[in-house]
Amino acid sequence: MEDRCRTCLFLSAFMFFFFFFFLCTKTFLCFAADTMSSGQSLSLNQTLISKSENFELGYFQPSNSTNYYVGIWFKKVSVQPRTVVWIGNRNIPVIDPSTSELKLLEDGNLVLFNQSKVVIWSTNSASSAMNSSEVVLGDDGNLVLRNRIRPSDVFWQSFDHPTDTWLPGAKLRYDNRTKKSQILASWKSPNDPTEGLFSLDIDPSGDQHFLLWNRTLRYWSSGRWNGQIFSGIPEMRSDHFFNFSYVKNENETYFTYSLYNTSIICREVLELSGQLHLYIWDEDKQKWFLFWSVPRQQCEVYAFCGANGVCNQNGLPFCTCMDGFEPRSQKEWKLSDYSSGGCVRKTSLHCGDRHTFSLMSKVKLPANPQRLTAASADDCKLTCLSNCSCIAYAYTSICSVWDGDLLNLQQLSDDEDAGEDLYLRLATSDIRKSGGKDKETHTGGIMGGVAGIAALLCIALFLWRWRMRLSIGKSNTVEGSLFAFAYKDLQNATKNFSEKLGCGGFGSVFKGTLPDSTAIAVKKLESLGQGEKQFRTEVSTIGTIQHVNLVRLRGFCSEGDSRLLVYDYMPNGSLDYHMFGQHDSAMMNWKTRYQIALGIARGLSYLHEKCRDCIIHCDIKPENILLDANFSPKVADFGLAKLIGRDFSRVLTTMRGTRGYLAPEWISGVAITAKADVYSYGMVLFEIVSGRRNSEHSEDGKFFPTWAAHKIIEDENVLALLDCRLQGDTNAEELTRACRVACWCIQDEESHRPSMGQVVQILEGVVEVNLPPIPRAIQVLVEIEENIHFFSEETANPNSQV
Ligand SMILES: *[C@@H]1O[C@H](CO)[C@@H](O)[C@H](O)[C@H]1NC(C)=O
Ligand SMILES: *[C@@H]1O[C@H](CO)[C@@H](O)[C@H](O)[C@H]1NC(C)=O
């Protein structure tokens, strides 16, 4: 009895101590609060943590760096290195943190002392609250220095002094009184947060924001705010998910954004690459998900490769040095810090020495040329030679020369139409070292006979092509198999564009009839920032592409600013009308659907693999699949991506419904391959099977393709996916093939997706298809997009031939 009691007592005591101990530890570990008062300080390993533990403030070290900085990072984001959103002392690091401290002084300033007790950073805030200020880290990531007694009295806040990150709730701001703006500036390199060359700034007079190189040169602009969106980034708009606003008053002009669902972790950051990225944290995958990126192409970032560097959008890495040059610092170059160091000459040029010119062909010429008049390329070359400081020349119709460093030089690829020849002055010894690529010409040397003949041939060819072009200019001449229409003829054929079939991102489509009673569809292209010459080249390429599953281009019209395309008219309209319309879709039985799926695949396979130049369609969706009188599918609008060029991604993102068909790589901004079409095809195939838009939610509230993937892979119940209007009328084997292949097509990894040729073989039954893995990216997109409705307006006509 006594024994038992003693045990009992002992146990109670143990538990009491255990509990006490637990409390204690908890108290010590949780030293961190969200607030620091006058006189208090923070040293290494101590942090402030915001109330809901979203953000943490303390000392950190960038990876591969021995320096310390005081900054704020996402506490709930587990990636290493930490995702830092703000830094106090970005330009002056702490070398030895053991004796450093971050202190809120009695005078109301938050200051950082370095190892020698010297102030290296301070809020420099003028406060009236002696001994009664406090600094609070908010759940929005804003560090606020304020009056403890009157908290609305804010002396300083980190949101007014951003580093490279723009958090929801923060303002991109211009102070109308001081005429100063708060800029975001990129880091200098992955291990150095010092202000880099790229910055984001706001232009209150232009109602826009833009990206700058070296604080002066604009290389990207958002376009003007029209009350709802910035014209250049229509994808950034208020919806159920984001709220964007632009405010102008006498004190300030600012742009800000927020998320309705504040539990979603999101950040906008000006990257080292000079691109502005919007990221969303994917909790499941433990990864930052890139939501969008501007400018889309790396080489659009001004002087990304630094002085004398060459940017190649299709190269990996993007940057190389020009011939005869090498990176100024191999170390920086290896850390992908191209922009600040750039390249330097291997051998310096001396005025009296022998020099040669090395040819770089198909380049976008460097910035800031001096333009001179010269009668010929030879004149231009001589002009450059006679001036010791001239380091390169190019002769188009005028003579351009450069001295000093070359900036923003880009190498274009062979399949791009633009591009000039640049001649680069090098020491002759450098040419020999680099193996004498046969391209150089000797200074002062006489052009060899061979070159002369070649030049003559070139001129002859040029004259011939020029004459060809002139002759095409006249109406009703035939270019290849294409007819060049006069604008007036098309006006007559369409009864002055009176019968509109639909409209989309590229322009409106009208029905017309030719004098021989052939029905045609005329597409009036809008906002084509392209010259006549390039338009004709593109159109004649499209004209050579003929396949039973591709809509045939009959001709075109190019007069003044008008650009029109003339197609065969398709009496049955577009696929979406028959798939999703409310009317009787008796024609859309399983057999027809399967033939349509196969036909689209054959058309795309022809575009990707069988044409002379591979064409990526870039905009596969039911609206672009037209049906002829026999319900045989014909893919429309191919080749337009190239016609529209640079603006294409913009056009895409503004078009209703398109986004649901876009492959993840469109959003992340990497190079687009034919596999992007495969992805879109997979999305369309799901719709053909189910008879409804993927964007409509399925039974358990999930995005249809995700739900479908689970049904196919886990339940192996493909019948559940079938359009209920078919009442089970299907071919089980074909249905299985179609579902599996659709699921393969929408894999995140491009390399996992089949080619369109393989898709054709699978659908034809020539090749077997295994069970696919569940695609991951769509799930993320879905979780995010469940709330986002980028494209809520009804703009397209269901019967559109767009
Ligand atoms: C602030 O507090 C310090 C120490 O408690 C004291 O020495 C100082 O006089 C105070 N200053 C004011 C203006 O109250
Ligand atoms: C940036 O501009 C400053 C002058 O404003 C100049 O001294 C500096 O060399 C420029 N940087 C580069 C990389 O050109």
Automatic annotation (TrEMBL):
Provide the alphabetized UniProt keywords.
Answer: ATP-binding, Cell membrane, Disulfide bond, Glycoprotein, Kinase, Lectin, Membrane, Nucleotide-binding, Phosphoprotein, Receptor, Serine/threonine-protein kinase, Signal, Transferase, Transmembrane, Transmembrane helix
In terms of CDD domains, this protein maps to:
B_lectin, PAN_AP_plant, STKc_IRAK
What name is this protein filed under? Receptor-like serine/threonine-protein kinase
Gene Ontology MF terms in the entry: ATP binding; carbohydrate binding; protein serine kinase activity; protein serine/threonine kinase activity
Q: Where is the Protein kinase domain?
A: 495-767
- Kindly report, in one word, the top-level EC class recorded for this enzyme: transferase
Question: Which parts of the sequence belong to the Bulb-type lectin domain?
Answer: 33-158
The cross-references to SUPFAM superfamilies, in alphabetical order and at most eight, read: alpha-D-mannose-specific plant lectins, Protein kinase-like (PK-like)
Q: Which residues form the Apple domain?
A: 351-427
- BP GO terms, sorted: recognition of pollen
The EC designation for this entry is 2.7.11.1
Which species?
Answer: Aquilegia coerulea
